[in-house]
Specification:
The chain is α+β, with helices and mostly antiparallel strands. It is built from 30 helices and 58 strands. A hairpin with an 8-residue loop joins strand 35 and strand 36. Helix 11 packs antiparallel against helix 13 and helix 22 runs antiparallel to helix 23. The protein is rod-shaped and about 200 Å long.
């Protein structure tokens, strides 16, 4: 139960006070009315005694009375109607609300901090801030108790309006004041008339109301004197006469109205009457007849089935759950149990706004206080004391008992007790009536008198005695009254000699309710007992008692008792918070039925504190819905909107129909709320959810679709998924081209172009957008409900600040409005339907028309629901809503939602790592820059599939769709070997494919068929093809005519493509770079992206090996020539439709070597390769004579048409493959650069020796493939490149994949700081000096004539290096193996056995030798050992002849 302002003892004492009637003459009433008060109202604030009173009990013991209060009421001879009483109680509760602006009343209960009586509870989350902290600031105690002043007001009013019944005397009048004015002509006569009137009211049968305590009622004569107008002397004389007639104890002269109304108007006199009168001066526009509350639309909760048993045929009013509303509220009990307060009628005449006591001074206040004191001490208490003695004496004489009841009490209790019968064993004799003189009633009368003057011990004894008598007579109404008061007396006895007999109260309550059917008396019992139990901390018993009395006959009473029961649960030692919340809900429901909307709202709000955030979504929905409804009824529209908002935004588990109802209710309330302030800011809408971080912003026009053979550049669109790897590649490409443009450095203000910003992109800088180009914002909406949502007139909300970046003049920031379309155009979506539980994106556009700073704030739209959106018979309502106009139910509200994007978590510095800080996310704050050119690129006849190495010609169209010219058009790609725009000079570029046979992509010349396949020579500079100019090979200049593309102009350029050497799917990125002619401060350049996807299939595989020819001399006498072996294999699979490959030409390109002729033995003119066939070709290569600036191209043609390999596109792709090959080998060699610094001189030697075995020869194999496709034969052409670097080492047309071993042991080693330089390999040494023996293959000699055969042999020595070499020839070398002797025999060299020579670079030296043979046979002449060293080196290297063929000679005998 809630905390009360009074203590329990004070509350009970003030509930039962001696009643005094007041009977006034008309003149006396007129005097008091000058103060806007009746006489009873005039004295009411002064009716509590300020000092102790004394009286003696029947045993002549002195009894002290403390803090006594009396009640003075005007006599009303007819009881008020029950409806008026109900209206009075309703108004008392309605007017008493929690005070505004007070400190929040907080209870800490377990884990909960509950705000109890705060009226300003908002239906928003979070409901409250951290109440524990608030609590510590308020008080150090563990909890506050809540006060409920509306309950106390109700209780006080209820007890005051209790009926005066016959079975008890507590509400009977003990005395009567007769009040006459001193200004009347004959006051004594008037007193006589009033006395007769009182006697007639009490003793005649025509008045049954009010009731009087004893027949001989104390009459107290009061002469009222108006000081301001009356004659004081006359008043005194009348008073003297009165004293003689009625005695000094029975009359009083009361002087009032000392204040003159026109004087001292500014003097402030306290008004003690307002607090007593306001309860009775409630002004309400509704009459009590209209007070009943309709419950047709009230929510129906399920009964919990707690039915009380029916015993012995007694009726039971508590059969149904308090919230079950199948039956209308019951009417009040037929017993006329309510007595209106005596001032009810007066209250209708008075007005709360009227000042009271305007004619009274503070002296008059003291006089009234003194009057009440005198009346009580001299009149009332002596009268009560005398009455108690008389009653005591009567009882003793009638009962024949001992001298006093007090002494008899011990005998009654010491004897054997008669066991009390249970209530169900007693007959229903509530109709039994005693005569007024019956001794049982006299005991009860004496007990009530003792109780009224606080003599609780004597009162308890009398009640106990009366209880026994009534029970013996089975007078149950009387017995229940005696039990009730006995229990209260026992509790109030000073010193608590006996425990509180709670079972007395329970029996009394059950009797009143079940037998007597008197709910008013039962309610009084419950109010008293619950307060007593609460004071003893028996909250559980008090709660049970309060709940037991809730019933259908009074919603207001049930609501108040349920609320007090809830407070009992919260005040327990272990607070039962959920029971508190549940009973607050029940109380709120009953308050709502009783028409107490504010109290209902307060109860639901308090309960919500417990239910929120616990996952009980259905309970939360019910509470929020009720809060919304009640708030709307009370016109608290903000609270109503907020409550309905929570039903919608929480993950609701309601069925679709219920959610639809919630949504419609929300829209209706919201519409009402917005109509109150139509000019206010747009409110925030809760639906649909917006995933702000998923917002994407796209700058630029939408991509054009492909038109026939024209394919637009893929660029960037919102339909593409974000790929961080791809994004990084584009960024690197842009950095690369910017670096090239800026001569190797990237400017500090460089900002990579980002067309689409999302949660993964770098949004730390303000993005740049171009004027007149659209900005598309993709917003992700999610509908959490099971019903569709319809958004209409959906558009972006923005703020714009114009800025002229060239003039440095800033404008004022403009919010979005109707007149701002000239600054930023806004595109609106007319209708946007989001189906149930669907996530859907909307793309909204802005069109900036001025330069400046744009800030996209959020979205604005009308939120509505779709008519008939609830599914019926299991049919999904979203079916059929996809197309056409949606049927709205006409209810929609306009609002906004902000796009608030949180930036990335910062994690760089120590401070950022230890705290939670977020960086900026500026994707919604673009800067609108000046006009820039805009390029569109189209690809014509661009293939999707190629053979590896296939050459195809396509066209690229460049279109400038902006209003300003563009220049410096370049393209950058990671795969420059994939495409070419042709050479720098027009002569090298073929005009069109139709200029040659078979529409070849090459530049061709028809050749005469010759028997010998000799090379056709041409030359070209690498600079003509953009290679070797110092720039990056990946950056390619697009050859625009005049280097400028004017606005609206378009240019078509040829583009040759070559299929990548590796089969599979290739993604090739092109980044087109261009600039404006005018330089801008914000945006320096623009880029356009294109990703080409090419699928390549296998074609040919080429291997090539070069080795030195044994023949040192060639036709021209040069000593340097090589043999080139080319192995071509058709590795194409037949699925691609390729019938066969023709090798049409083999070309060489080198600065030092050229192909001379083909040495193929086969006589076939053309080389055809079917599937899996292989061809071997052999060519002779010789050194070039030309300078090292240009490359020499040598073409060996196998067909009728020579492809000029030094022109585009053959040379383009050759040079590009050369640069990529160089780049790959350069990266590998760069890794060893640090090692080359060690022992430099030794390494130079090694390098010179290694250089001898190096060869710089590149082979291009050109081919045609015959393809059958759709029964038509096509001819494809292509080329493969092989780069030969080392003599004897096999090279391939594309790098071989190295197969990794399956398992490798881990090896741990420490790298050496000084690696040992590698020695030249034997292969490299053998290539330093090349040797060749010239001799006759067979020699005839007549050994008979001459025994020694001398054969001249020429040893040719060729220096393969560029340096001067010292050579030593040793002829003493003998074969060591016996096998060699047996096979080849032995011979001797004649002459010098050792020669020392010096050969210049590339020199060929001829040395004449003689060999001596002694008999015939086959001999190997390759025995000379040749040593060589560089001139400035010490170490000799032996050249090895193992790779040479054996030099065999046959000696014949003639």
């Amino acid at each position: 139960m809630a905390q009360c302002v009074q203590s329990v003892q004070e509350f009970i004492q003030d509930s039962f006070v001696p009643l005094v009637a007041a009977l006034c003459s008309e003149e006396a009433e007129r005097l008091t009315r000058r103060n806007n008060l009746s006489f009873a109202e005039l004295v009411r604030p002064f009716c509590r005694l300020t000092s102790e009173a004394h009286m003696r009990d029947p045993n002549n013991q002195l009894h002290i009375i403390k803090n006594l209060k009396i009640a003075v009421n005007n006599i009303i001879t007819h009881p008020p109607q029950p409806g008026a009483i109900r209206k009075l109680l309703h108004d008392v509760v309605s007017v008493s609300q929690p005070a505004e602006g007070l400190v929040a009343n907080v209870i800490t209960a377990g884990d909960y901090d509950l705000n109890i009586s705060d009226r300003s509870v908002k239906a928003s989350v979070p409901w409250y801030s951290n109440w524990k902290e608030t609590l510590m600031e308020l008080n150090t105690s563990t909890f506050y108790s809540a006060t409920t002043p509306w309950f106390e007001s109700y209780r006080e009013c209820f007890l005051q309006s209790m009926p005066a019944s016959d079975h008890e005397f507590l509400n009977h009048y003990v005395a009567c004041m007769l009040v006459v004015s001193s200004s009347e002509p004959d006051p004594v006569e008037q007193f006589l008339k009033l006395s007769q009137e009182q006697h007639r009211i009490q003793h005649s049968n025509e008045y049954s109301y009010p009731k009087w305590f004893i027949p001989n009622t104390l009459k107290y004569y009061v002469l009222l004197h108006d000081v301001s107008t009356g004659e004081e002397q006359r008043a005194d004389s009348i008073y003297e006469e009165m004293k003689q007639r009625y005695g000094t104890q029975g009359c009083y002269l009361l002087k009032i109205n000392s204040r003159v109304s026109n004087r001292g108007a500014d003097e402030q006199i306290p008004d003690p009457w307002s607090q007593y009168l306001q309860k009775n001066t409630i002004q309400n526009q509704d009459s009590y007849e209209d007070y009943t509350v309709s419950n047709k639309n009230t929510d129906h909760l399920i009964s919990d089935g707690t039915d009380t048993e029916i015993k012995d045929g007694l009726s039971n009013n508590f059969k149904t759950h308090p919230l079950q509303l199948d039956h209308p509220s019951g009417t009040l009990d037929s017993t006329d149990y309510m007595k209106a307060s005596t001032s009810l009628q007066d209250s209708k005449k008075s007005n709360s706004g009227t000042p009271h006591g305007a004619c009274l001074t503070l002296t008059d206040h003291d006089r009234i206080r003194q009057f009440i004191q005198e009346f009580t001490f001299r009149g009332l208490l002596p009268h009560i004391e005398k009455t108690i003695r008389q009653l005591n004496d009567q009882l003793i004489s009638r009962k024949g008992l001992s001298r006093s009841l007090i002494s008899a009490t011990k005998k009654w209790f010491s004897g054997s007790k008669v066991p009390e019968k249970s209530i169900n064993e007693l007959k229903n004799t509530s109709g039994l009536l005693y005569l007024p003189e019956a001794p049982e009633l006299q005991i009860r009368k004496m007990a009530d008198l003792c109780f009224l003057v606080q003599h609780y011990e004597l009162a308890y004894s009398c009640y106990h005695t009366a209880k026994k008598d009534f029970l013996n007579d089975q007078a149950m109404l009387y017995a229940a009254g005696a039990l009730e008061m006995a229990a209260v007396s026992a509790f109030l006895q000073p010193g608590a000699p006996r425990p509180y007999p709670a079972h007395y109260m329970e029996t009394a309550i059950q009797t009143y309710r079940d037998i007597c059917k008197n709910m008013v008396l039962a309610e009084r019992c419950v109010l008293l007992s619950a307060e007593i139990l609460k004071s003893q901390s028996k909250y559980s018993e008090a709660a049970a008692l309060l709940i037991r009395l809730t019933s259908e006959d009074s919603d207001l009473r049930s609501a108040l008792l349920l609320e007090q029961a809830a407070h009992c649960f919260i005040n327990m030692k272990s607070p039962m918070v959920r029971k508190f919340a549940f009973h607050m809900i029940l109380a709120g429901h009953r308050f709502s039925k009783a028409g107490q909307k504010k109290h209902a709202l307060r109860c639901y709000c308090q309960a919500m504190q417990v239910y929120k955030g616990k996952g009980w979504s259905l309970a939360e929905d019910h509470i929020n819905f009720t809060i919304g409804r009640q708030s709307f009824t009370l016109r608290q529209l903000d609270n109503a909107v907020s409550a309905f908002r929570h039903i919608l935004i929480n993950d609701s588990k309601q069925p679709p129909a219920q959610q639809g109802a919630f949504l419609r209710e929300y829209l209706y309330v919201y519409k009402n709320a917005t109509q109150l302030s139509p000019d206010g800011p747009l409110p925030q809408l809760p639906l649909p959810y917006i995933n702000s971080s998923a917002t994407r912003v796209f700058f630029g026009h939408d991509r054009r679709p492909a038109e026939g053979e024209k394919q637009a550049a893929t660029h960037v669109s919102l339909d593409q998924e974000y790929d961080s790897e791809s994004s990084q590649q584009w960024k690197e490409l842009e950095e690369q081209i910017v670096s090239v443009i800026n001569k190797g450095t990237i400017p500090s203000n460089f900002q990579p172009t980002q067309f689409c910003l999302n949660r993964y992109s770098d949004n730390s800088k303000f993005p740049l957008a171009v004027i007149e180009e659209p900005i598309t914002v993709e917003v992700s909406f999610r509908n959490p409900l099971k019903v569709p949502l319809l958004l209409t007139d959906l558009s972006l909300l923005w703020k714009f600040q114009p800025k002229d970046f060239s003039a440095k003049h800033d404008g004022e920031a403009k919010e979005q409005g109707t007149c701002d379309e000239d600054m930023v155009g806004t595109e609106a979506i007319a209708e946007f339907l989001i189906n149930s539980e669907e996530t859907k994106v909307a793309r909204l556009k802005l069109f900036p028309h001025q330069t400046g700073e744009l800030h996209i704030l959020g979205v604005v739209y009308n939120l509505g629901s779709v008519q008939g959106a609830v599914s019926l018979d299991g049919i999904d309502p979203s079916i059929g809503l996809q197309t056409g106009k949606f049927v709205s139910n006409g209810l929609s509200v306009r609002g906004r939602q902000d796009l608030e994007i949180q930036g990335p978590r910062l994690n760089n510095t120590k401070e950022e790592k230890t705290s939670i800080k977020y960086g900026p996310d500026r994707r919604l704050d673009p800067i609108i820059t000046e006009e820039m050119p805009l390029l569109e690129v189209f690809f014509i006849n661009f293939p999707t599939g190629l053979l590896c190495g296939e050459i195809r010609k396509a066209y690229v169209e460049f279109v400038n769709v902006s209003k300003c010219p563009l220049t410096a058009l370049k393209v950058v790609s990671k795969h420059p070997e994939f495409f070419t725009f042709g050479g720098n000079t027009a002569a090298l570029t073929p005009l069109s494919p139709s200029a040659s046979e078979n529409c070849s992509a090459y530049k061709t010349v028809v050749t005469d068929p010759t028997s010998v396949r000799a090379a056709l020579l041409s030359s070209a500079s690498s600079a003509d093809f953009g290679v070797g100019t110092g720039g990056s090979p990946e950056v390619i200049q697009v050859p625009l005519p005049d280097a400028v593309l004017l606005p609206g102009a378009s240019v078509q350029l040829p583009m040759w493509l070559r299929g990548p050497d590796e089969e599979g799917v290739h993604e090739i990125n092109f980044l087109f770079y261009y600039e404006s002619i005018k330089k801008h401060s914000k945006m320096c350049h623009r880029v356009l992206r294109h990703t080409a996807v090419i699928c390549t299939s296998r074609s040919l595989h080429v291997r090539a090996t070069v080795c030195r020819s044994n023949a040192l001399g060639d036709e021209e006498g040069r000593g340097d020539n090589m043999l080139l072996f080319v192995d071509v294999e058709n590795i194409n699979t037949s699925e691609t439709g390729v019938k066969e490959f023709h090798i049409v030409q083999v070309s060489s390109n080198s600065k030092h070597w050229k192909l001379q002729k083909s040495v193929n033995i086969s006589g076939d003119k053309d080389t055809k390769l079917a599937s899996r066939e292989r061809a071997k070709l052999c060519f002779k290569a010789v050194r070039c004579k030309n300078s090292e600036e240009n490359y020499t191209f040598a073409d060996i043609v196998f067909g009728n048409e020579q492809i000029i390999s030094s022109a585009s596109p053959c040379a383009d792709f050759f040079f590009q493959s050369l640069s990529s090959e160089f780049k790959r080998t350069h990266v590998q060699s760069h890794a060893h650069a640090s090692q080359r610094a060690v022992k430099q001189s030794f390494d130079e030697t090694v390098r010179l020796i290694q250089k001898c075995s190096e060869v710089d020869l590149n082979i291009v194999v050109l081919w045609k493939a015959y393809v059958v496709e759709d029964s038509k034969q096509l001819i494809l052409e292509g080329q493969h490149h092989v780069a030969l670097n080392t003599v004897g080492k096999e090279a391939f047309s594309f790098p071989q994949k190295q197969e990794l071993p399956e398992t490798v042991l881990l090896k741990f080693f420490r790298p050496e700081n000084t690696p040992v330089p590698a020695r030249p390999t034997p292969e490299q040494l053998s290539n330093l000096i090349k040797t060749s023996l010239h001799y006759p293959e067979s020699f005839n000699h007549s050994f008979h004539q001459k025994s020694l055969c001398l054969v001249p042999v020429t040893l040719l020595l060729s220096n393969c290096s560029q340096a001067v070499v010292d050579v030593m020839i040793d002829l003493r070398h003998k074969p060591t193996s016996s096998e060699a002797l047996e096979i080849h025999g032995s011979f001797t060299w004649l002459g010098q056995t050792q020669y020392k020579l010096q050969l210049k670079g590339q020199e060929v030296y001829s040395l004449q030798l003689k060999a001596c043979f002694v008999h015939t046979g086959v001999y190997n002449l390759g025995t000379p050992r040749v040593f060589a060293k560089l001139v400035d080196q010490v170490t000799l290297f032996e050249t090895s002849q193992q790779n040479s063929m054996p030099a065999l000679i046959i000696i014949n005998n003639i």
